[in-house]
Amino acid sequence: MRYTRLKKNTDFRKLFKRGKRVFSPHITLLYAPARVHAMGIALTKKHGKAVKRNRLKRVIRAAYDRNVEVLEDAYSVVVLPKAGGEIKFADAERELVSCFRRMNSSCQRSKDS
To answer: How much is the pLDDT for 85?
Structure first.
């Protein structure tokens, strides 16, 4: 793993209050600049029973870990999958990479200003 996991409620609350958002069809990312890469996943019971929620978390963690090097800077990120359907690994990976690219471009614009 090339990132730490967000586990504390205070870390999640900070990102929900002050974080910026990036959207894709199945995933919403909340992010803020940080010293090290950190990631957490927020799910509710609307996503299904425990087996389905745990599978969704495993898929997202694997896709995130595989593509975290796309990020140019370190961020704290909360991944919010949208309730409804199951996300396949390829879809999760593609959507995370597109969100990462938008995060990089928005932070580049803020640094240039």
So the answer is: 77
